[in-house]
């Protein structure tokens, strides 16, 4: 089967009425706290939905909510995030929640089993504050002033009368902490939390079984409103994350968009990864290169719908990036309430990935705009446009 439609939810199967599906895709590993688990795929031919199943008997209880997420997928390779719940040694908070990321993929040889590989923990260094010359004395004076103010506030709090509402709030907080603590497990050593943010993580597979996992975070602390990107890259066969800072290339008129950019999806696009802000545009990064670059391409200003009705995906085997923009209403401002709604329209814009040799001289632009009407039978079972 050339392709499959994969459900974005992961289905837990720890025994009982619904057993874990045993098939050739089953593979196992363990989390950072030593809890073993297995995953397998229930593959179905489109338009049926394929599903990912998880067997994690020593994992968090179902009461804890979703603790396994499908973070990314590309060309048969899946990126999973499992979150363990560990009782904190020095509460509050009552729990620590370390994340583990795993790459789940088929072998290059079809007769070999699938692999499930835990990635090393990514830890971004915390920024260090340094002072020099007169700044040291000013910082010390400010610290002493803050300490004195803190002591005064503490004394004021001790002098306050404890009300019934405060007692109720304290009891409720203690009860909540005790209930949360029961969801976690005790471990002997310290757990190390990953710095990765799942909304910023993308996966790009290339070759037979090679891949790169990338996370992008924007740094807006530079002077003059300049924005740079902090990239965390992990290439297959490498044991450590590569942390690098690169400038973001954008036009002056797009500076406000880049400053306010908030990624909501990451899409593989040719040899690049595309971070999408459905309100503004896309950040493109050639993550496979030794010295990656990041550039910003805005959505056309003519696209006027709200971001909830937009979607970005790659088609044509990853060579074309497609923006689908659904226009819910075209009522003119101030029109009569009895004026009928116009038909739903889907505006489609395309961006084609340039060949490697032309990438430096070719700009990424949206082109090929066309509109397709959406029939009422396909739009919320005939509900009017204002209900969509």
What class would the helix/strand composition place it in?
Answer: mainly beta
Average pLDDT: 80
Radius of gyration: 26 Å
By DSSP, the count of extended strands is: 22
Shape: globular
Q: Main β-sheet: number of strands, strand sense, barrel status?
A: 8 strands, mixed
What percentage of residues falls in helices of 4 or more residues? 10-25%
Distance between the first and last residues' Cα: 34 Å
Identify low-pLDDT runs: 355-362, 376-388
The helix-strand sequence is EEEEEEEEEEHHEEEEHEEEEEEEE
Number of helices: 3
Strand content: 35-45%
Keywords for this entry:
388 residues; 13% helix; 4-stranded mixed beta sheet; globular; disordered C terminus; 36% strand; mainly beta
How would you concisely characterize the structure shown here?
The chain contains 3 helices and 22 strands. The protein has 388 residues and is mainly beta. The radius of gyration is 26 Å and the shape is globular.
């Amino acid at each position: 089967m050339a392709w499959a439609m994969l459900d974005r939810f992961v289905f837990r199967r720890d025994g009982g009425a619904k057993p874990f599906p045993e098939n050739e895709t089953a593979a196992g590993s363990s989390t950072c706290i030593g809890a073993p688990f297995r995953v397998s795929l229930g593959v179905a031919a489109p338009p049926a939905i394929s599903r990912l199943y998880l067997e994690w008997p020593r994992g968090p209880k179902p009461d804890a909510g979703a603790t396994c997420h499908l973070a990314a997928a590309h060309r048969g390779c899946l990126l999973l995030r499992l979150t363990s719940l560990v009782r904190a040694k020095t509460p509050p908070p009552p729990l620590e929640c370390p994340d583990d990321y795993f790459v789940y993929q088929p072998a290059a040889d079809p007769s070999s089993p699938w692999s499930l590989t835990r990635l090393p923990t990514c830890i971004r260094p915390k920024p260090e504050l340094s002072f020099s010359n007169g700044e040291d004395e000013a910082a010390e004076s400010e610290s002493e002033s803050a300490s004195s103010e803190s002591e005064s506030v503490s004394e004021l709090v001790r002098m306050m009368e404890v009300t019934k509402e405060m007692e109720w709030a304290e009891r409720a907080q203690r009860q909540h902490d005790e209930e949360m603590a029961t969801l976690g497990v005790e471990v002997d050593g310290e757990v190390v939390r990953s710095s990765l943010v799942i909304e910023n993580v993308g996966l790009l597979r290339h070759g037979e079984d090679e891949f790169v996992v990338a996370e992008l975070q924007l740094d807006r602390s530079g002077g003059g409103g300049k924005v740079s990107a902090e990239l965390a890259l992990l290439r297959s066969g490498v044991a450590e994350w590569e942390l690098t800072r690169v400038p973001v290339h954008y036009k002056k008129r797009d500076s406000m968009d880049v400053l306010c950019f908030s990624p909501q999806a990451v899409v593989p696009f040719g040899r690049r990864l595309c971070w999408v802000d459905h309100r503004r545009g896309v950040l493109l990064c050639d993550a496979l290169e030794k010295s990656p670059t990041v550039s910003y391409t805005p959505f056309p200003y003519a696209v006027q719908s709200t971001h909830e009705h937009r979607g970005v995906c790659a088609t044509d085997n990853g060579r074309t990036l497609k923006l689908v923009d659904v226009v819910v209403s075209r009522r003119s401002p101030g029109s009569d309430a009895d004026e009928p709604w116009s038909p739903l329209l889907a505006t489609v814009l395309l961006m084609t990935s340039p060949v490697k040799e032309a990438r430096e001289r070719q700009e990424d632009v949206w082109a090929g705009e066309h509109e397709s009407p959406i029939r009422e039978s396909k739009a919320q079972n005939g509900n009017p446009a204002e209900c969509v």
